[in-house]
Amino acid sequence: MKKSSTYNFVLAAFGAAIIAVLAQVTIPLPLIPITGQTLAVGLVVTILGTRVGTLSVLLYILLGAASLPVFSGMSGGLVILVGPTGGYIVGFLVTAILMGLYLDTFGLTIFHAIVANIIGMVVTLAFGTTWLKIVGDLTWTAAFIGGAAPFIVVGIVKAVLAAWFGVIVRRRLERAHLISFSGAQTLAERN
């Protein structure tokens, strides 16, 4: 059964709220903190799919840009988006699209969800590191050491967790008829 656009928007708002809540889980590091945002983005896209998951991420970014305290450390505003962590946040949008497209193409299995989430981690780190280099006027080496290297192992762990929990939750929500996707995608997911 296809859900209405209003229902999908409510799901997207719920997804944005999950990202906002997990963004407050922070482990401080010198340049860029480790946060629950990336875990949340992977989880939301794995559960809600390309369209609704990407809408969730976009809504999250817009809420933060409008100065609502949804970014890590209960922060918000355009100043965050143009600051050192802005590239990661903007990268979440591209991450959501690419993850969703990967899962649409290959289907929802634990393996493919892990691959999609690792792709998402790489994309987020690439956007964040590039922006950190520009904003911080750093060399590529310094930007990589400060903006990507400390997050690779943690990112892989978060990718696996987001994939595993995401697949379980999505399948349960589908069985309960609370979310639905196109017939071709659903068949691929069952295999």
List keywords for this structure.
single chain, 191 residues, mainly alpha, Arp2/3 complex 21 kDa subunit ARPC3, two-stranded antiparallel ribbon, 8 helices, 73% helix, disordered C terminus
Can you walk me through this structure?
A two-stranded antiparallel sheet has the order 1-2. The model is unreliable at 183-191 (pLDDT under 50). It is built from eight helices and two strands. It starts with a helix and ends with a helix. With 191 residues, it is mainly alpha-helical. The protein has helices at 5-22, 37-65, 78-81, 86-106, 110-136, 140-147, 152-175, 183-190; strands spanning 26-27, 34-35. It has one domain (5-189): Orthogonal Bundle (Arp2/3 complex 21 kDa subunit ARPC3), CATH 1.10.1760.
Write the SSE topology:
Elements: H1 5-22, E1 26-27, E2 34-35, H2 37-65, H3 78-81, H4 86-106, H5 110-136, H6 140-147, H7 152-175, H8 183-190
Antiparallel strand pairs: 1-2
Helix pairs in contact: 1-2, 2-4, 2-7, 4-5, 5-6, 5-7
Low-confidence stretches: 183-191
> How are strands sequenced across the largest beta sheet?
1-2
Instruction: Give the termini separation.
Output: 20 Å
Total beta strands: 2
- CATH-assigned fold name: Arp2/3 complex 21 kDa subunit ARPC3
Helical stretch count?
Answer: 8
Q: What is the overall silhouette? A: globular
- Major β-sheet, in short? 2 strands, antiparallel
What is the CATH class?
A: Mainly Alpha
Keywords: Cell membrane, Membrane, Transmembrane, Transmembrane helix, Transport
GO molecular function: biotin transmembrane transporter activity
Membrane topology: Multi-pass membrane protein
Main location: membrane
